[in-house]
Specification:
This protein has six helices and nine strands. It is α/β, with parallel strands linked by helices. The protein has one domain: Vaccinia Virus protein VP39 (Rossmann fold), CATH 3.40.50.150. The strands form two sheets. Strands 3-2-1-4-5-9-8 form a seven-stranded mixed β-sheet, sandwiched between helices. The chain has a two-stranded antiparallel ribbon with strand order 6-7. Strand 8 and strand 9 form a beta hairpin.
Length: 207
């Protein structure tokens, strides 16, 4: 974990959140897919790797009351807490490596924008998926965004894995039901365009 921790701490120290390539002023696609899940406002939602995102604040504004943000970088979490100001205490903040963390609870929805595609090593992917399955309730929802087939091959100085909907479905396996997906173009703060795959899935009731 230490090498990855040092890398991401450095990334978040060197640039403000709005200067990062993945920055978006409003997480519209994520919010739309979370709404598609039709969950009650007291549902337990995890924003995995969401330390530099504004999603938690948007979820609070939409009326959700049980929100956890987990990120490997304490710097990113500190920035996100500061952005929320007095609302920050309404969110649970966890410094966590998603390949190994025991959340000691289960969530109704796991949201991940731009973490999974950094899991290029098969062992890292398997560990991430083990954590996901252990933290998601039976019939729980997964909203995940990765670089699409025509997306970049590297990000933040690291290689990434690009996914089509079929490839993502194969990776997650038969215990996840694909509910919807879409390819979207994300414009970075520097003006580049990146293709993202957004997908909404549900874990089988028996998992």
């Amino acid at each position: 974990m230490s090498r990855d921790l040092d890398h991401w701490q450095g990334v978040h120290r060197e640039r403000e959140p709005q200067e990062q390539s993945w920055y978006e002023a409003a997480p519209g696609a994520s919010l739309a897919m979370i709404e598609e899940a039709g969950l009650p406002r007291d549902a337990a939602i995890l924003d995995a790797g969401g330390g530099a995102s504004s999603l938690a604040g948007r979820l609070l504004a939409a009326g959700y009351t049980d929100i956890t943000v987990a990120d490997i970088s304490e710097v990113a979490l500190r920035q996100a807490r500061a952005d929320l100001g007095s609302q920050a205490d309404r969110v649970s903040w966890l410094q966590a490596d998603l390949r190994s963390h025991d959340f000691e609870r289960r969530f109704d929805l796991w949201h991940d924008r731009v973490v999974l595609h950094f899991m290029v090593d098969p062992a890292d992917r398997a560990a991430y998926l083990d954590t996901l399955r252990g933290a998601l309730r039976p019939s729980g929802h997964l909203v995940v965004a990765t670089f699409g087939p025509d997306g970049p091959t590297h990000c933040s100085g690291l290689p990434v894995t690009r996914y089509s909907a079929a490839e993502l479905s194969t990776l997650l396996g038969e215990d996840f039901e694909f509910l919807s997906w879409r390819l979207l173009s994300h414009r970075t703060p520097s003006g580049a365009t990146q293709q993202f795959l957004y997908a909404h899935l549900a874990l089988a009731p028996g998992e």
